[in-house]
Every structure is written in C-alpha cells, then in structure tokens.
Amino acid sequence: MNFSNLRVGPRLGLGFGVILLITAVIAMGGIWRIGVLKDASERVATREIEQRTLVEDWASDIRLNWVRTEAFLKAIDTAYMEQLTNEMKATATATEGKVKRIEELVQDSRGKALLADIANARDSYLTKLTEIRELHRGGEPTIPAMVDQQLRPLADKYLQALDALRSFMASQLSASQQDTATMASASQTLLGAGALVAIVLGALMAWLVTRSIVTPLRQGMRAAEKIADGDLTQPLSTTARDETG
Question: Which domain covers residue 107, as residue numbers?
Fold first, then answer.
C-alpha cells in the first residue's frame, strides 16, 4: 500500500503514532537504565560499604584486644588484669556480631576464602593463647618471652589475614564505584543517542507526511493558476487516492 494513497487523517495519525512509539521506546530504555543504575548504587551504598565498615571495625577490635592480651600476660597488678579481662570480653562479644554479619554479606568465593584464612589464623592464635594462659596461671616465669616469641607471630598472622580481607573489600568497593560511574556515563550516552534518533526519525516522518499532502496541493494550485490565465490545455493528473486526488 502506497503511503500517499492513505487519506489525510489516517496518514497524520500514522505519522504521529510512529513518533509516539519511538518516544515510548526511548523512554522505556531510559527507565530500564535508571533502574539498573539505582540497583548498582544501592548495592554500593549499603552492602559493600557495610562490609568494608564491619571489616575495619573487626580489625580494630582484634588489634585492641591483642594489646590488652599482651598487657594482661605481662602485668602483675591483679586489679588491672581484671579490668583488662572485662574489657576484652566486652570487645569480643561485640566482635562476634560483626563477624556473623560479615559472613552473611560476603557471597563471592574470594571473600569466603579470605574468611577461611582468617578463621584458620584465629584458631592457631587462640590455641597458643590458651596454652600460655594456663602457664600464666601456674606462675610460669618465662611468659613475657613466650608472648614475644610464640604468641606475637601468630597474632601478626591473624592481623595480616584481616588486612588481606580489608584490602579485598576496599578494591571491591572501588571497582563497584567505578562500574556505577561507567554505567551512569553509558546511560547518559544512550539516552542522548536515543533522543537524537527520536528527533531525526520524528523530523523525517513529519517531512514525509507534510510532503505527501503538500506536493499534490501545489500541483493543483499551479494547474489552477494556468487555467485561470487561459491555458485550458493544462492537464490535471494525479496518482493520489486521498482527499487531494
């Protein structure tokens, strides 16, 4: 079916319908991209930032309790030792909740592997700590040397395992922020390109519709002018099947 054979009303309706369809497609694409960007932003703003914050707190708690443990094992003041014990217990209780939440949040294989490394380092540290505590209760005189030579290396290894997780969380957060920025830039480009395509196609459709209506009218006007000037031989021919035919 020839486009110019359509009546003017349907032809205008078709032209505007095509423009509206293009606009709707661009709008739906924009809504979808905004939704994807929103999800990515929420992930960065909630889960990944929460993970990193909890790991930072966890590492700080362990460092603090290591300082207290070292002071406890080398102290001779009973009241001070009791104070350190209470503080260590309170910190350890708070840390348990953080660790549980971190384990819930970490879903990737690399993060889980790092958590397993931390657990192994922690077990080795706690085993040696329990052993030294027993000797400390028995009045072992070489406890300070044992703390420096045997317990400290295990504490350092424990903290290094935590630092590895901290570094991984930081790199993960940075990568997610970069992905979000890239996605935002791509969304802007896509919407800009879509708007440009909509303008071009809309202008093309408007031109085609206008041309299909105006061209036969101009032909009729030129023929009418020649007839009015006395040229009765002017032919009136058209292939249009609409109101102008």
Answer: 14-198
